[in-house]
Amino acid sequence: MRLEIDNLVVSLRSDHMLGRGRTVHAVKGVSFAIGTGEAVGLVGESGSGKSTIARAIMGVVPPTTGEIRFLQEGRASGLPKQRRAKLAQMIFQDAAASLNPRLKVGSALNQIIAVHHPRLSARERETMGLGLLRRVALDEMIFDRFPRELSGGQAQRVAIARALIPEPFLLVCDEPVSALDVSVQAGILRLLDDLRRNSGMALLMISHDLAAVRALCDRIVVLKEGEIVEAGPANAICSSPTHAYTKALLDAVAQI
């Protein structure tokens, strides 16, 4: 399996008073690919187009021009919603906000398991849900807790467990550790790396933090104002950057 992004352009209409808005070119001709088991970092400052690319992959915003393709499946825009969900899932910076506050963790997992694995019995769904918690290194007691009772790291692990239910080819991680304590960040990054290596799932790691991306990714794509300014193996990008913007991002990491 392979995700290919070919000359992607995404133009968005900004809201403005009196009904007049302007077109913002958020992504300008971006191309890259991710294969089975690969981890690719998408790096840049706020407003560089990282999250817009993620939303385009997930089908939340349509490409203006260019294509997003899943090889052996075809153009992403032509895929049924449930099939697309089996190809790509997404986790967010604020994991707790992405969980239903009215549902205990077990009930939330059960609902999604029922959608993607409709032939399972209630007992089998519960068994699968508990297994997912163990897979993301959470105690089974979490099953009966509400999101408000979870720490930030626990909430992110639950979000990852939920994303694993369709057994996706690709996990899109939009700033997944930036809201967490440094010690917790390391554990989440290790979990993502273990899942990738053990399952062959591909990762797209979106971040402004080159240090976090360097710890996880094989390749890095550097974005500035919607365009790729540098791309290559993670070690080469971090040790010998060629673009001044990349050097500035690395300098920012070194000063922390």
From TrEMBL:
Top-rank lineage group of the source organism: Bacteria
One Gene Ontology MF term: ATP binding
Gene3D superfamilies cross-referenced by the UniProt entry: P-loop containing nucleotide triphosphate hydrolases (3.40.50.300)
Keyword ATP-binding: yes
Family: Belongs to the ABC transporter superfamily.
Keywords: ATP-binding, Nucleotide-binding, Transport
Taxonomic lineage from the root: Bacteria, Pseudomonadati, Pseudomonadota, Alphaproteobacteria, Hyphomicrobiales
CDD domains: ABC_NikE_OppD_transporters (cd03257)
Coiled coil: none
Species, as recorded: Rhizobium puerariae
Annotated PANTHER family: D,D-DIPEPTIDE TRANSPORT ATP-BINDING PROTEIN DDPF-RELATED (PTHR43776:SF7), TRANSPORT ATP-BINDING PROTEIN (PTHR43776)
Protein name, UniProt field: ABC transporter ATP-binding protein
PROSITE patterns noted in UniProt: ABC_TRANSPORTER_1 (PS00211), ABC_TRANSPORTER_2 (PS50893)
Domain ABC transporter: 12-250
